Amino acid sequence: MPTLVPVLLAGGTGTRLWPLSREGYPKQFHKLIGDHTLLQATALRAAKLDNAAPMVIICADRHRFLVAEQLREVGIENAVIILEPEGRNTAPAAIVAALFASQQHGEDAQVFLMSADHAVADEAAFCSAAATATQVAASGRIVTFGIKPTRAETGYGYLKRGPALNEGGFALEAFIEKPCLEDAQRYIADDAYAWNGGLFLFAAQHLLNEAQALEPDMLSACESALKDANQDLDFLRLDATAFAAARSDSIDYAIMEKTRSAGLVPMDAGWDDIGSWSFLQKLPADEHGNVKHGDVLIEDSRNTLVHASSRLVAAVGMENHLIVETKDAVLVAPTDRAQDVRRIVKQLQLDKRAEAELHPRVLRPWGSYESIAEGERFQVKRIVVKPGEKLSLQMHHHRAEHWIVVRGTARVTCGDEEKLVTENQSVYIPLGTKHRLDNPGQLPLELIEVQSGAYLGEDDIVRFDDVYGRTKQPN
After folding, report:
1. Domains of the chain
2. What is the rounded distance in angstroms from the CA atom of residue 278 to the CA atom of residue 339?
3. Spatial contact of 99 and 229, defined as CB atoms under 8 Å apart
4. pLDDT digits (tens, 9 = 90+) for 55-91
5. How far apart are CA 66 and CA 302, in angstroms?
6. Cβ neighbours of residue 111 under 8 Å, at least 6 residues apart?
7. pTM of the prediction?
8. In this structure, are strands 367-375 and 378-385 parallel, antiparallel, or unpaired?
């Protein structure tokens, strides 16, 4: 049996799940269903596949520490994390995955390419479909999985299966773009049609052969990006110049719609995309069809989702609506407009608003910071540093800082001086002074930081030394 390399694509931004999902902390890192984040659930599911090698995660550079931390939390220590300098869609990612799998596990290696932000209810059925797909792929097919539809979904593409194959799957007859409602209703009544779940399984060398024939320039760019990749701590960073030369395209358009060797394996595993807030309305509801998360009170309402993150949210007389609350934003929309949330995100991006990118609490590899007050020439933050971790040795051109320790003990470097600062003590960091903060203790360090100066942006940081290799990286 060939080695199967699970490859998780974790580079999406999940704009339709705003305000919870944001560029800096997208949906795959949230616990939307169950006790694990979507990334963690996908990784744990991938670890159960037969004959699986250590998994590969392909993600954006800015999310590298999030990925590493979330995998560590669920005990996955041997994953390979490949960093994309910029998003180029799924076709270049698939080629990089095939190149890596072939180099590490031989030409017979197979790749199971999957998104890190999908839901699967029946893991046994998922693994069984994958086992069938390995047989079909071994016969020279690039396999996609036809998801058994449960509703007339207009937000998904569809697949039409062709004749049966000896290995247990089918030839793939056609890809169908997202349909109108009338067509979607016709498709779900016909067993020949299935949802396109964006899952692919293929022999690494076969995909590379197809890429050579169909997308030679893309293949060449990906080969160079991997050949010139740099090892950065526990991450493999693709060469930025070479990877940028790869045309951005999906594996569906670049390979699957052109190849003559596409196969389809049916999957009935309770799969769903979690593409918008309307998915969460399918979770357990009260007798009136309302779905509640967090501190929520509902009166005289029907078929309404209320998702509260930080405070009490009350809804009266609502019907077929979404209400989503975070610390800095509230979304209200009719359920049938859930797909249009991305339009709000586009407006925020055009206006360069922080709410499109970050939550008030921002995670860093050393801990987190959260803005709690700001005004003209000042900003107040709550900083938490994990035990044994430290911030970079840095300085600021435009601001001074006061640190007040409220829990734990801080070791502070300020210029040439190093000292311990304990609870209820404070220290002043003058503008232009090299400084560093670290937590030498066994408990989280919490402090209040008061910044004052002419400019308080996060880009006013000059790093001189950093244990996370960020002296040349933005985050």
Report:
1. 4-272 (3.90.550.10), 277-345 (no CATH), 361-465 (2.60.120.10)
2. 8
3. no
4. 999 999 999 999 999 999 999 999 999 999 999 999 9
5. 37
6. 4, 5, 7, 94, 97, 98, 101, 200, 201, 202, 203, 204, 207
7. 0.90
8. antiparallel
